[in-house]
Amino acid sequence: MSFDSKAFLNTLSTKPGVYKMYDAEGVLLYVGKAKNLKNRVSSYFTSKGLNAKTVALVSRIDSIETLITSSETEALLLEHNLIKAERPPYNILLKDDKSYPYIFLSGHEFPLLTLRRGKKDKQGKYYGPYPSSSAVRESISFLQRLFKLRNCEDSYFNNRSRPCLQYQIGRCSGPCVGLISEQDYATDLSHAEMFLQGKNRVLISDLQSEMDRHAANLEYEQAAKVRDQIQHLRKVQEQQDIDSEQGNVDVVAVHIEQAICAIHLSVVRHGRMLGSKSYFPKFNMEESEAESISAFIGQFYLSLNHEIPDEVILSHEVADASLLAAALGEKRNKKVRVSHQVRSGRLGWLRLAQNNAAEAVRIRMQDRMQLADRYLALKADLGLSFVPMRMECFDISHSHGEATVASCVVFDQNGPLKSDYRRFNIKGEIASDDYGAMRQALTRRYKKIAEGAKKPDLLLIDGGKGQVGVAEAVLKELNIQDVPILGVSKGVTRKPGLETLIMDGVSFQLEADSPGLHLIQHIRDEAHRFAITSNRYQVSKARRKSSLEGIPGVGPKRRRELIRFFGDAVQVQSASAIEIAKVPGISKHLAQEIYNALHEQ
C-alpha cells in the first residue's frame, strides 16, 4: 500500500517542528526541520522541481512522523540530536565525530605540557581547540624546543632521580631533579602561554628586553639562548600570513564537484591560525553548497558538541543564517555571529579555506579515478564477469603464538571502508595454528551473513593454498556461494611485485606494474598493518597487566601493600612464602596461595 500523502498533509500543523520519514520496514530514512511543517513536508510531494535523489527518497516513504516544537530554533536543535542518534541514510552525515584536541597545561608547580581530548575535567589551562592532533603535536614540539617545558605525566615526574632523555636532547629543562628553579620555569611557562594566546609581538618584545639585560650583565650564553628563541618566533610569525592578534573564529568553506562534497574548516584563535581540516560528508540528496554548509554547521556544532567560537564565517550565504546563529548562541550561552560577507583579514582566512576545499575535492577526484582504473584492471586480470565493489581481506598475526589476532579489512568503490573493519581475537588451543585461526575468524565473520550481514564480492586471503583451502571449506560449510576467493602469497623472494596469486586452484602472477596487482597489494598490506597493530595492542595490554592480578584474595589494597613492601611485582615473585607473609595484612595461608599462584604462571 502506497503512502497517501494527500490525506497525511491534511492533518499536518503549520507550527514549527521536526519530521521523520520511514520506509515500509520502519527504517528511518530522513530527518528534517521546518518553520511550517505543512508547507515544508508538502514540498516533497509536488510534481515539479525535485531532483532525482529526492524523488528516490519520496518513492520509499511509507510513513511520516512529526514532532511539534515551540520555536524553529528548538526544531533545529532537535533535528541534529536525532541525526546524531539515528544517522538516517538520506541526511548529510559526518564520519569524523572525534572531539577537538587541546594543548593542556596542568596545575602542577612545574606544569605539564601535553595533548588532551574530551571533557575539561583536569585542573589546569586548555588552549585551542586545534582541528587535528597533528597540529597539537606540532605546536607542542615547537614549545618544547623553545621553552623546554616538561611533557611527562606526574607519576613519572615524581619518581625521577636523574634527568631523562628529553633533557639530554634539549627538550626539557629538568625540573624533576631541580635543574631549573620554579621561578625560571614559571618565566618559560608565561612565555609559552603568550605564544599560545597569539601575543607573538608582545612576547618578542619581552624576549628582546631579556636578551639586552643578559648582554648588559655579560651573560652572553643566556643572551644567545634568548636570541635563538626570538629567531624561531619570528620565523613562525612570518609563516602566519594573516595574523591580526584578535578574533576567535571558525572559517567554513564548501566545494562540490562531480558529486564530491568537501567542507574545509579553519580554526583561528586570538587571530592565529591553529590549523585546518577537510571533511567529506556523506552526500545523498544532491544538496546545493548552501544546503550542505548549513547542514554541516548544525551537525558539527549542535550534534557533535564541538567548541563554538565567537564567529563562524561561511563561504556561501545560507537562508537560515539567523536561525543557526540563534541556535549556536543558545547552545553556547553567548552570542555567536554567522557571517558570509567579510573584509580585510577575515576575507583572507575565507579565501584560504575556499582554496583548500577546492584542492581537497581535486585530490579526492584524482584518487577516485585511479581507484576506478585499478578496479577495472583487477576485473580483467582475474577474469571476473563483474567489477568487485566490496572486497574483504583476512590476515593472521601473533607473537610466537601469543595474542593471536585475525584482521578483516574492507574496500569499496571509495577505497578502505574503515567503519567495516573487524578484528578477531583467536581463542583456544588453535591460537598458535594459522589454519585453525583463519578458520575461526572466517566462520565468525561469515556466519553473520545469514543474519543479514553484507556479503563480499571478492574474498582475499593473505596466504597460500592451505589458507585458501580453509576459506573454501568454511564458505562451503556455511552454504555461501558466488564469492570468489583469491589467495595472495608473497612468493619465495617475498618481494613486492612477485606475489603468487591463487584462484580456483590455479597459481599465477601478474605483471609488477599492473594496476590490478597494485590494488591487491594495497588491500593485503592494509590487512597486514591492521593485524599487526591489533596484535601489538593485545601484547602490550598483557604486558601491562600485573602478575598479581587475578590471584584469589588479593585485591587492589593487598596488591598495593605487596608492591610497597617489595618494590615491584618482580621482587614479589622472587620472594618466598615466608617473606610474603611479613607484608601487613597477608596471612601465612594467603602468602602460600600467592606464592603458588605466582609460580604456576
Topology:
Elements: H1 5-11, E1 17-22, E2 28-34, H2 37-42, H3 52-60, E3 63-68, H4 72-86, E4 102-106, E5 113-116, E6 124-127, H5 133-147, H6 154-157, H7 165-168, H8 182-196, H9 200-216, H10 220-239, E7 249-257, E8 260-269, E9 272-279, H11 289-303, E10 311-314, H12 321-332, E11 337-339, H13 344-382, E12 391-399, E13 402-412, E14 415-416, E15 422-425, H14 434-446, E16 458-462, H15 465-477, E17 485-489, E18 500-503, E19 506-508, H16 515-544, H17 556-566, H18 569-574, H19 577-580, H20 588-600
Helix pairs in contact: 4-11, 4-12, 9-10, 11-12, 13-16, 14-15
Structural description of this entry:
Helix 4 packs across helix 12. This protein starts with a helix and ends with a helix. Strands 12, 13, 14, 15, 16, 17, 18 and 19 form an eight-stranded mixed sheet that branches. It has helices spanning 5-11, 37-42, 52-60, 72-86, 133-147, 154-157, 165-168, 182-196, 200-216, 220-239, 289-303, 321-332, 344-382, 434-446, 465-477, 515-544, 556-566, 569-574, 577-580, 588-600; strands at 17-22, 28-34, 63-68, 102-106, 113-116, 124-127, 249-257, 260-269, 272-279, 311-314, 337-339, 391-399, 402-412, 415-416, 422-425, 458-462, 485-489, 500-503, 506-508. It is built from 20 helices and 19 strands. By secondary structure, it is an alpha+beta fold. The model is unreliable at 238-245 (pLDDT under 50).
